[in-house]
């Protein structure tokens, strides 16, 4: 039974937008989708005119649509954003090498510059090598940490002011569920603070840590796929070969079932998140410092990426993701690096003595 | 005996031997979409059925379009297929 578009009431509707119960024709849907993204950017001050924006680009549906829409908004509103595609090569044969070709297609279609950083270049480890050592469990734990730093490094290299990622409403809701299901209180608190805008510490500002924004945070995954479908945007649609073993899959299945029964569920989870207030202890902002190995901003002396890399180099990658293993490893790494730092200081002191006495 | 075109994308084409488009003739009158899904599950897809269906239902996370219209607007599984219809299945269950 055909329904008229609830916006223009002229054309027949093509899509039901679950988060607001709207029936929209293609044209009204494009306008609605682009306006939602624009409103998110403006209301939350995500991007400033003239900024260099690194768009985390995987060749997948979210980042493809993000790049396309940011380009449209840039031209429509004359924001003068300097848009770049920033891609990470994790070294997953048969997955990432194919998706990078799609990013290169995005580069050519949207005429945006592209910069690629690789795990191999940053850490001397590809994900294929990591998985050979640690097996099929906890792959995303390593990859997530490495990718986060890789994006920061890439953004620094191209001197971007801000990093935009394609996280959508489903992703954020899924992360909330995931952290609740795993009892990961620390990550849950962080996701609350990110949603409430209080995550950025003043120390991070001092260190000029790159800002991260999620312009698609209010749109549903369904809308992104439909937008790409109607606009005939090309994207890479294969699941990472290591993803089927990820715990996140359970949260995703559950969320999708919830959405089917009650489409509002996803936006309601985000609304609940925005209403949570943490007690003083939880919302105390962590002191940011620089990792003594690589200089990245971290809440610890040694950042997580360095801890993981050290454990892999020692053939102890599996231990890195076990709680007790992490404690003993981080102590060992800290001790090792402290000893190194002492040796450097002593060497410099000896050199100065030698220089002053000659 | 409606003849319809089935389209598979978002990775689902790997379940149909790489075929993004499959044309089928369904016998009988008043063939509902539920029957089409059953046919796909039992006759078209040979393995990894769990990527397409959950029990008898299309797996949550797979979008269904009937002639480029969201099946939510067309009665979902109770839609009666017409001659020349194009039914599209798009998986959203992959990285973005």
CATH superfamily of chain B, by name, is Beta-grasp domain
Domain count of chain A, please report it.
1
Largest sheet of chain A: 5 strands, parallel
Level-1 CATH class name of chain A: Alpha Beta
CATH 2nd-level architecture of chain B: Roll
- What gross morphology of chain A would you assign? globular
Bin the helical content of chain B. Answer: 10-25%
Order of strands in the sheet with most strands of chain B = 2-1-7-5-6
CATH topology of chain A: Rossmann fold
Low-pLDDT residue spans of chain A: 323-358
β-strand amount of chain B: 25-35%
Number of helices of chain B: 1
Question: Would you report the number of β strands of chain A?
Answer: 9
What's the total count of β strands of chain B? 7
Instruction: Report the CATH architecture of chain A.
Output: 3-Layer(aba) Sandwich
Alpha-carbon distance between the termini of chain A?
95 Å
Runs of chain B with pLDDT <50, length 5+? none
Binding site for ATP (chain A): 56-58, 62, 88, 166, 171
Subcellular location (chain A): Cytoplasm
Family (chain A): Belongs to the TtcA family. CTU1/NCS6/ATPBD3 subfamily.
GO biological process, one term (chain A): tRNA wobble position uridine thiolation
Structure description:
The complex is a heterodimer of chains A (358) and B (96). With 358 residues, chain A is an alpha/beta fold. Chain A has a single domain (15-355), classed as Rossmann fold, CATH 3.40.50.620. Chain A has 16 helices and nine strands. Chain A has helices at 26-43, 61-77, 96-110, 119-123, 127-134, 139-157, 169-181, 185-195, 202-206, 221-230, 248-261, 265-275, 280-283, 304-313, 317-320, 323-357, and strands spanning 15-17, 22-24, 52-56, 82-89, 114-118, 162-164, 211-213, 289-290, 297-298. In chain A, the strands form three sheets. Chain A has a five-stranded parallel beta sheet. A two-stranded antiparallel sheet of chain A has the order 1-2. In chain A, strand 8 (289-290) and strand 9 (297-298) form a beta hairpin. In chain A, helix 2 packs across helix 10 (221-230). Chain B has 96 residues and is an alpha+beta fold. Chain B has one domain: Beta-grasp domain (Ubiquitin-like (UB roll), Roll). Chain B is built from one helix and seven strands; from the N terminus they run E-E-H-E-E-E-E-E. Chain B has one helix at residues 33-44; strands spanning 3-9, 21-25, 53-54, 57-58, 62-66, 69-70, 86-91. In chain B, the strands form two sheets. In chain B, strands 2-1-7-5-6 form a five-stranded mixed beta sheet, with no helix packed on it. A two-stranded antiparallel ribbon of chain B has the order 3-4. In chain B, a hairpin with a 2-residue loop joins strand 3 (53-54) and strand 4 (57-58). The longest helix of chain B has 12 residues, at 33-44. Chain B is globular, with a radius of gyration of 12 Å. Classes of the chains: A alpha/beta (358), B alpha+beta (96).
């Amino acid at each position: 039974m055909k329904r008229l578009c609830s916006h223009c009431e002229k054309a027949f509707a093509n899509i039901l937008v679950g988060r607001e119960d709207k029936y929209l024709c293609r044209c009204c849907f494009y306008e609605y989708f682009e306006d939602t993204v624009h409103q998110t950017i403006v209301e939350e001050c995500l991007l400033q005119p003239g900024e260099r924006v690194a768009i985390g680009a995987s060749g997948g549906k979210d980042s493809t649509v993000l790049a396309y829409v940011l380009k449209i908004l840039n031209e429509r509103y004359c924001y003068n954003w300097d848009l770049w595609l920033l891609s990470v090569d994790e070294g997953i044969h048969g997955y990432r090498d194919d998706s990078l070709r799609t990013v290169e297609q995005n580069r050519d279609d949207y005429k945006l510059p592209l910069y690629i950083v690789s795990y191999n270049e940053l850490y001397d480890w590809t994900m294929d090598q990591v998985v050979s050592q640690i097996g099929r469990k906890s792959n995303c734990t390593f990859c997530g940490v490495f990718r986060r730093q890789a994006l920061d490094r890439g953004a620094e290299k191209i001197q971007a002011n801000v990093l935009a990622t394609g996280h959508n409403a489903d992703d954020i809701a899924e992360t909330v569920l995931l952290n609740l299901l795993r009892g990961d209180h620390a990550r849950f608190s962080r996701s609350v603070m990110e949603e409430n805008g209080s995550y950025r510490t003043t120390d991070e500002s001092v260190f000029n840590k790159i800002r991260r924004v999620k312009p698609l945070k209010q749109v549903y995954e369904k809308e992104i796929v439909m937008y790409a479908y109607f606009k005939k945007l090309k994207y890479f649609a294969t699941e990472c070969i290591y993803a089927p073993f990820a715990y996140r899959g359970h949260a995703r299945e559950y969320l999708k079932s919830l959405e089917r029964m009650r489409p509002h569920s996803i936006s309601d989870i985000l609304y609940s998140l925005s209403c949570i207030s943490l007690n003083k202890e939880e919302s105390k902002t962590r002191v940011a410092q620089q990792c003594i190995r690589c200089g990245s901003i971290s809440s610890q002396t040694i950042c997580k990426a360095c801890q993981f890399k050290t454990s892999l180099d020692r053939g102890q990658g599996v231990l890195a993701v076990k709680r007790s293993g992490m404690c003993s490893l981080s102590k060992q790494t800290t001790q090792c690096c402290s000893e190194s730092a002492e040796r450097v200081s002593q060497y410099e002191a000896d050199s100065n003595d030698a220089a002053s006495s000659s | 005996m409606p003849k319809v075109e089935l389209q598979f994308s978002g990775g689902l084409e790997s379940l149909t031997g790489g075929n993004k488009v499959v044309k089928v003739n369904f016998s009988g009158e008043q063939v509902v979409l539920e029957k089409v899904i059953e046919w796909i599950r039992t006759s078209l897809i040979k393995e990894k059925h769990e990527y397409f269906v959950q029990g008898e239902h299309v797996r949550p996370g797979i979008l269904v379009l009937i002639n480029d219209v969201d099946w939510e607007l067309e009665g979902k599984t109770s839609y009666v297929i017409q001659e020349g219809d194009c039914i599209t299945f798009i998986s959203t269950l992959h990285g973005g």
